[in-house]
Specification:
Blueprint lengths: L28 H8 L3 H6 L12
Amino acid sequence: MDMITIDLTDVGGVEVGEPVELWGENVSVNEVAKHAGTIGYELLAGLTRRVPLKYVD
């Protein structure tokens, strides 16, 4: 199963259905991985084809 839950309770101004950045320009994948108790590679390797990717040059 490829599901994730993000708790935005303490983040103001965010509504259901709005796009959010899980990692990228503002938060590195390694920072997210650190809080999840893993490494960035594991998070990136776990992405499936169902996740739309946006490449920015």
